[in-house]
Amino acid sequence: MRAAVLSGGRFSIETLPDPTPGRGDAIVRVSACGICGTDYGIFTNRLLPDGVVLGHEIAGEIVALHDGGREWREGDRVAAIPLPWCGRCESCSRGQENLCQAALTYMVGCSTSPGGLAEFVRIPTSSLRRLPERMSVRHGAVVEPAAVAMAAVRLGGIHPGTRVGVIGLGPLGLFAGLTARLEGALVSGVDERPTRVACARELGLGAFEADGLATERIRELTLGGPEVVIEATGKPEAIEMAGQMARLGGRVVLVASYHAAAKIRPGHWLQRGVSLLPSIAYGPGDYDAALSLVTSGRLDVARLVTSVHSLDDVQTVFERFTTQNDDIKLLISP
Q1: pLDDT of residue 69
Q2: Distance separating alpha carbons of residues 64 and 69, to the nearest angstrom
Q3: pTM of the model
Q4: Which of 71, 200, 219, 247 could bridge to 205 as Cys pair (CB 3.0-4.6 Å)?
């Protein structure tokens, strides 16, 4: 199979042996694989050893099975959960599967377990979710980041009437804002890119372009600041900004990937009673809920998928990841 292999800080398209299914596994022909900030962080910071295949937002078609039982057949269209929750650790036992260290360590496409930037990928059948016929298989790849946003919204304790601020209106921020709105929240966001601000407004969210006054505008709009601020840029300096935006006694949820130290003023947070809540990954309930929202159309992902590239374009896509101003969600179609 052809795959984008990351070595020495660059991707090369190489021919690798086709994967074969072990017990409980399926081989999925990848139709679409999303690119996100976590992938970009691995790429720029060389967080994994050479020779890895990235890509954890995966959807495609089953082409081989070791033993699918009665549930799965070749040709089934599926989305893939990249987290192999162990189901046995303390975190899994208390319903916090997102903290399962086995899942985070061996996450498909974010570890040495090969991911979806390839023609085929091996996935446990327990991690597969069937896609309905009316749903585009490409949209199946977008369920994964939607599940990340779903978990962040749940952690923030958002309910009808909650005032929510979102910093960063990329895919995660938009998904979080849209999901929060479905919960009945009043959502306002901010981003540096005019195209993303425009997209948020088209989707019915309040949005401002970052100009030094946006934080104050959102504080005024929400009569003292949002109860919940979702930080989705991954920029360490935005964490303090989120704390300043939140109202007294508010909550800041971190939902991006951070690869540098952050400078915050703990005394300021303490004095204002603002809580800091890191949200990582998601549990099976979050993923299934996100899939249901995408399937029903209540979460409109079609308007967020703005660019689909071939496997040969992977290096260029990553090089331009932070400057592709007209794109929201990028997919690779191997």
Answers
A1: 67
A2: 13
A3: 0.95
A4: 200
